[in-house]
Amino acid sequence: MDDTAGGTGLTFSRRSLIAAGTLGAAVPAIGGAVAALPSAPARASLAATRRVTIYAEALPGGLVGYGLQRGQATVPGPILEMYEGDTLEITLVNTTNQRLSIHPHGVDYSTGSDGSPLNDSYNDPGETRTYVWRSREMFAAAGRRFMPGSAGYWHYHDHAMGTDHGTAGVAKGLYGALIVRRRGDILPDKQFTVVFHDMTINNRMAPNTPMFEANLGQRVEWIAIGHGNLFHTFHLHAHRWADNRTGMLESLGDPSPVIDNKDLNPGSSFGFQVLAGEGVGPGAWMYHCHVQNHSDGGMAGIFLVRNADGSMPPGAEEAIHRFQGHTHGTSGSHTDHQGAHG
């Protein structure tokens, strides 16, 4: 990875996401690094061009992932971040034997950086190609209105493997989160990417879905992404957020509804920040699809909120063991449904 930031002196730091499928056991190729922002937002006049190299690599189990370093691809891929006004130059190295690409949502790009075969924008096997993504701030329009900027919780994915729409690439794990921030946005302590794809979460099913961890009071940022062919909703137990760009209310009069469940359908994405365990305390809290036969079928995971000192809260380990031992299936029997919801 090129750590320089277009001559601005800014650098990428790398933060690990905790995405183990079982307590105390690492799960390969789940979670990702973060091409992160500097610790303090830059002024608008300091809009940067950042350069990053991403490697597309075959992984065990028939998966394929994106990674910031050779040999470190994950599913999902790394979280990519930029401020409005920034440009991100991505050099994609295809180490596989299939064509693939990287296509973004929510930002500006030319046809040459579209990442689709329609525009002859993809990497052949072994090919290296640079894609340029641009972002912009909102600006005034006629009629006392404003045109929106790029800020939001977006995502990126393959658009060339298997079909001209990248169906095989997405199915194999070529996807990740893209965040465009406004200057002055609050930065989180932890970030989690959750991708609902058909009947999987990050290409896994319960009880092997990612278990995300934070300490009580830490600011946690969730990025939820939908892929595949099925309707989903995302529900997080014991936590709620404002249904707007950041998940936080802007003022006492902010009319944004406060929710704890939101539709998450193919191609959609959203994000929000919460304080881990705020008002409810530490514990093993479930996240899952709220389509009942989807959660019963394995679309569920655990958000483990530890005590503020990082220790395990009472009852959490027992709850995790119950989750790991629960048989997720599509049977309609009473036994099969017990434990599907925390």
UniProtKB/TrEMBL annotation:
The UniProt entry, under Gene3D superfamilies, shows: Cupredoxins - blue copper proteins
Q: Which residues form the Plastocyanin-like domain?
A: 74-183, 201-308
| Species for this entry | Actinoplanes sandaracinus
From which domain of life does this come? Bacteria
The record's annotation in Pfam families points to: Cu-oxidase_2, Cu-oxidase_3
Keywords carried by this UniProt record: Metal-binding, Oxidoreductase
* Protein name, entry field: Multicopper oxidase domain-containing protein
